[in-house]
Design brief:
mainly beta, 2 helices, 8 strands
């Protein structure tokens, strides 16, 4: 079976994967490094995976949490993107997350596992996500939204992001979120 179909079959088997990956007594932990981390499955089996999304900047909302199990075959390459937490630099970008606009702070970065690597905001790479923990919003001096679930928690008057759509700022005061990134 070629690599593409092997990866596709893994994707169909489950919709899960990691910031902590464990198999039997082995635990593989990934911390934020500002780039993706390639991980090669060492042994065929079922792995337990847990992900935490990054907290938003300033008085930011908490990131989401997700967990699950997935069957993986030895030698499969996966790409772990650990989201940046609490960027306090006005007008900046948080890794795997969002953009700060109009002098605002960015939210945190999502943490996810992908079948193919690339820049964190690369559309083709984003489409291969198999598990995602959403990030928290920044708050920008107000109430911050939190990531997680089918719909995130609203921050103040802003509309939260969902599984299929980025969040929207109140009265278009800041940039809206989109596929794979948050607004700010």
């Amino acid at each position: 079976m070629n690599k593409f179909f092997k990866l596709l079959s893994i994707f169909v088997i489950s919709f899960f994967f990691a910031s902590i990956i464990s198999y039997a007594e082995e635990i593989y932990s990934f911390d934020y490094v500002g780039d993706y981390q390639k991980w090669v499955v060492p042994v065929t089996g079922v792995y337990r995976v847990e992900l935490w999304g990054g907290q938003g900047g300033s008085v930011g909302g908490n990131g989401g949490y997700t967990a699950g199990s997935i069957y993986l075959e030895q030698g499969v390459e996966l790409y772990v993107y650990v989201g940046q937490s609490r960027s306090n630099s006005s007008g900046s970008v948080s890794f795997n997350g969002s953009f700060g606009s109009a002098g605002g702070l960015p939210g945190g970065g999502a943490t996810d596992i992908r079948l193919f690597g690339g820049e964190w905001n690369d559309f083709e790479s984003l489409k291969t996500r198999i598990m995602v923990a959403g990030s928290g919003g920044s708050g920008n001096g107000g109430k911050a939204g939190a990531g997680g679930g089918l719909i995130g928690k609203a921050g103040g008057l802003n509309n939260p992001g969902t599984q299929t759509k980025g969040g929207e700022s109140y009265k278009n005061m800041y940039a809206h979120g989109g596929f794979g990134y948050g607004g700010g």
